[in-house]
């Protein structure tokens, strides 16, 4: 017997508990009932048991507090209905809320939850540990902390020093020990940043001090991440290093937007380009022209030059109606996707205020998003549900 709630889920929980009590306890006759709001009420439940042949009825207050309801309301209601069946005996159990076994089970559940929370932060058991005097060039993935590799997570948890980039989610840095050093060495297009030479110097310095050093880079360190340059500097200095691949946003952002980069019968070739030249930040139009025939084109760091890139592809023979998607903050809850064509995408992006960090996907595979957009649809449905519940 439960109290009765305006939330149907709570009432269904009581019904399910009654079913399990009957099943696990070997009781042939069990009826769920409610003190208030929901049906069947205590009177109806009691009568149903009598109709099914019960001669002794035990009323079990399922987690009601030992206050007014169980000391007053419930006994009165049961007494009133039992008066109509003089041959039937009844008892009311003590409420469970303060039972020693319930307290013991609650403590066990709290401990289990704390252990699970620790696993959610550090993952399963530790598998890898950073070595002293070695630099680990680690890919942090596209952003969401749960897309870290196990090796990346474990190396972070044992690092003395973490040198991290601009797009690293703060939650990822939670894996690093609180006593360690965390140095921001990120680069922002058009803004002040740590020079690459200074980053090399710091990596070498900390490694020579015998520290466990993690160089944490967004995405994959060997895909437009200058990981190769840093590895070259370490090699030249005689510093041992290791590369830990990460999930590149070039792969993850389209996947989270419901866009497969290849699809049988639609796309069998993919190119990944940078939208800006490394030397001066100008649009990388020569590379775009050279690789314009690929079925799917993925462009990183290209939002600023989107209009020139789209025009260049049309000039090179791509249909102006070729679909294009821009995915901003891929894999984050705030992920935003704008879809258009080579003809319209620049205007669509400007209207939506799209800017870096974003991934551009060009090709027929973009049309599959209409059916495969699982991530943003999930959050839209969750938001709609919350709004509906708030309105009730």
Number of helical segments?
A: 14
What's the end-to-end separation, in Å?
26 Å
Secondary-structure element string = HHEHEHEHEHEHEHEHEHEHEEHEHH
CATH class of the largest domain: Alpha Beta
* Estimated share of beta-strand residues: 15-25%
The quaternary organization reads as: single chain
Would you identify the CATH H-level superfamily of the largest domain?
Answer: Tetrapyrrole methylase, C-terminal domain
Q: Could you give the order of strands across the largest sheet?
A: 5-4-6-3-7
**Weakly predicted, low-confidence segments:** none
Number of strands: 12
Report on the architecture of this protein:
This protein has 3 domains: 91 residues, no CATH class; 114 residues, Tetrapyrrole methylase, N-terminal domain (Cobalt-precorrin-4 Transmethylase, domain 1, 3-Layer(aba) Sandwich); 127 residues, Methyltransferase, Cobalt-precorrin-4 Transmethylase, Domain 2, CATH 3.30.950.10. The chain starts with 7 loop residues before the first helix and ends with a helix. It has 14 helices and 12 strands. The longest helix is centred in the N-terminal third of the chain and has 23 residues. With 392 residues, it is of the alpha/beta class. Helix 2 crosses helix 3. It has a 5-stranded parallel beta sheet, sandwiched between helices. A 5-stranded mixed beta sheet has the order 8-9-12-10-11, with helices on both faces. Strands 1-2 form a two-stranded parallel sheet. Strand 1, helix 3 and strand 2 form a beta-alpha-beta unit. Helices cover 40% and strands 15% of the residues.
């Amino acid at each position: 017997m439960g109290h009765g709630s305006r939330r149907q889920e709570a009432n269904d929980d009581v019904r399910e508990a009654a079913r399990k009590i009957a099943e696990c306890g070997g009781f042939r006759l069990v009826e769920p009932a409610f003190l208030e709001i929901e049906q069947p009420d205590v009177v109806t439940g009691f009568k149903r048991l009598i109709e099914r042949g019960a001669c002794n009825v035990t009323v079990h207050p399922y987690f009601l507090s030992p206050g007014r309801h169980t000391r007053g309301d419930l006994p009165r209601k049961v007494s009133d209905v039992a008066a109509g069946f003089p041959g039937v005996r009844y008892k009311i159990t003590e409420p469970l809320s303060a039972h020693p076994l319930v307290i013991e089970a609650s403590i066990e559940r709290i401990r289990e939850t704390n252990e699970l929370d620790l696993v959610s932060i550090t993952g399963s058991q530790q598998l890898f540990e950073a070595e002293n005097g070695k630099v680990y060039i680690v890919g942090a993935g596209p952003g969401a902390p749960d897309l870290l590799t196990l090796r990346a997570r474990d190396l972070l948890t044992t690092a003395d020093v973490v040198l991290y980039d601009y797009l690293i989610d703060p939650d990822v840095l939670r894996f690093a020990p609180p006593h360690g050093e965390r140095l921001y060495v990120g680069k922002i297009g058009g803004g002040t940043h740590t020079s690459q030479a200074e980053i090399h110097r710091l990596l070498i310095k900390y490694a020579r001090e015998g520290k466990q050093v993690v160089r944490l880079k967004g995405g994959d360190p060997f895909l437009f991440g200058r990981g190769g340059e840093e590895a070259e500097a370490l090699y030249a200095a005689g510093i041992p290093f290791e590369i830990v691949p990460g999930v590149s946003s070039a792969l993850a952002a389209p996947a989270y937007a419901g866009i497969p980069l290849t699809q049988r019968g639609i796309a069998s070739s993919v190119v990944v380009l940078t939208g800006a030249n490394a030397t001066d930040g100008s649009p990388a139009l020569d590379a775009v022209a050279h690789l314009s025939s690929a079925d799917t084109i993925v462009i990183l760091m290209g939002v600023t030059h989107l209009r020139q890139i789209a025009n260049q592809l049309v000039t090179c023979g791509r249909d102006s109606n070729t679909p294009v998607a821009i995915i901003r903050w891929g894999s984050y809850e705030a992920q935003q996707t704008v879809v258009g064509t080579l003809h319209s995408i620049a205007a669509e992006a400007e209207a939506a205020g799209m800017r870096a960090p974003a991934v551009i996907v060009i090709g027929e595979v973009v049309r599959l998003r209409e059916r495969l957009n699982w991530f943003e649809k999930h959050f839209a449905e969750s938001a709609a549900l919350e709004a509906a519940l708030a309105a009730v």
